[in-house]
């Protein structure tokens, strides 16, 4: 099997609260068609791709909250996405709010992403571990960020799958800011990390950093790629959504940390790069050869509670 994988980052522009899933699915299918016409084999969509970014609202009625969650994947509304991918022979990944029941019958809610193969089969599932924001209504904020209220910390760890001719891991939005995320994937010899994000330009607890949002986005992802010798595909939901500006800057990053392609709008946009997974060796066998140079005996503090 070829070690070249043609990957598309499919950025989504704003999704208003009133936009239906079916309408978003049509937009995603249009991006898939565009990506396929440019030779893409894998299309990567953002975090919580099917709806507006609902943690910006303090919702009290569980029915209103659950309206943003998926209880089935695929569902009637998302089935066309899976069918389009099968028809186009594409794999794709995307994020969604997952409501499920555990073995004890308890309801669980996660911020989830899945990687779907070209036959419509789920190859990998990840549930977001670093949930940013807060749990209670904080009225001083111009908008809320209630991920800690609506989701539980993911319970699947950071899995890596042998898939599409390489080793693939995923993370979601805030996870990308934590070096531990990329290192855990790197220790499993991930060659490709797929991630989606919804990042407001305005960060209410530290507004002095608003002008640095794009810089911090790329800084985190480029460092993660380089320090672990992996391709990283970071995909935004971007633009002015329900009064909140979200950064764009979706990009495909080489294992050297260089940005190979980047979106230039804040709307629906596709970029495509032919990614040679063997290029991971340039980094993983040399400067970040873990077996030769890492000193885990000295890193005990890293896994102690702060
Ligand atoms: N969706 C996110 O995880 N957003 C956070 C914001 C709140 C800082 C992020 O890390 O981009």
UniProtKB/TrEMBL annotation:
CN hydrolase domain ranges (all copies): 5-277
Residues passing through the membrane, by range: none
- Tell me a Gene Ontology molecular-function term this record carries: hydrolase activity
Does this entry carry the keyword Hydrolase?
A: yes
Superkingdom is: Bacteria
UniProtKB keywords = Hydrolase
Would the keyword Hydrolase be found if you checked this record's keyword annotation?
yes
UniProt-recorded name of the protein = N-carbamoyl-D-amino-acid hydrolase
Source species: Roseibium polysiphoniae
Source lineage: Bacteria, Pseudomonadati, Pseudomonadota, Alphaproteobacteria, Hyphomicrobiales
């Amino acid at each position: 099997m070829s070690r070249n994988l043609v990957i598309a980052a499919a950025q989504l522009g704003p999704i208003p609260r009133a936009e239906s899933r079916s309408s978003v699915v049509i937009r995603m299918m249009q991006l898939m068609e565009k990506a396929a016409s440019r030779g893409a084999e894998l299309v990567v969509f953002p975090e919580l791709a099917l709806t507006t970014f609902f943690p910006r609202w303090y919702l009290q009625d569980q029915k209103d909250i659950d309206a943003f969650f998926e209880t089935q994947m695929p569902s009637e509304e998302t089935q066309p996405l899976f069918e389009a991918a099968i028809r186009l022979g594409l794999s794709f990944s995307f994020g969604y709010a997952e409501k499920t029941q555990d073995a004890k019958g308890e309801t669980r809610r996660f911020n989830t992403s899945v990687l779907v193969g070209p036959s419509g089969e789920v190859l990998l599932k990840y549930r977001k571990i670093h949930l940013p924001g807060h749990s209670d209504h904080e009225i001083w904020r111009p908008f809320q960020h209630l991920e800690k209220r609506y989701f539980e910390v993911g319970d699947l760890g950071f899995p890596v799958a042998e898939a599409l001719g390489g080793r693939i891991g995923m993370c979601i939005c805030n996870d990308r800011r934590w070096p531990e995320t990329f290192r855990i994937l790197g220790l499993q010899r991930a060659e490709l990390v797929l991630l989606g994000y919804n990042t407001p330009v305005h960060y209410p607890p530290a507004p002095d950093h608003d002008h640095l949002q794009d810089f911090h986005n790329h800084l985190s992802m480029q460092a993660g790629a380089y320090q672990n010798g992996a391709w990283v595909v970071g995909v935004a939901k971007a633009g002015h959504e329900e009064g909140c500006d979200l950064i764009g800057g979706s990009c495909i990053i080489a294992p050297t940390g260089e940005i190979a392609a980047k979106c230039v709008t804040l709307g629906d946009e596709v970029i495509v790069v032919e990614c040679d997974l063997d290029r991971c060796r340039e980094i993983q066998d040399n400067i970040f050869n873990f077996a030769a140079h890492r000193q885990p005996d000295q890193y005990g503090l890293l896994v102690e509670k702060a």
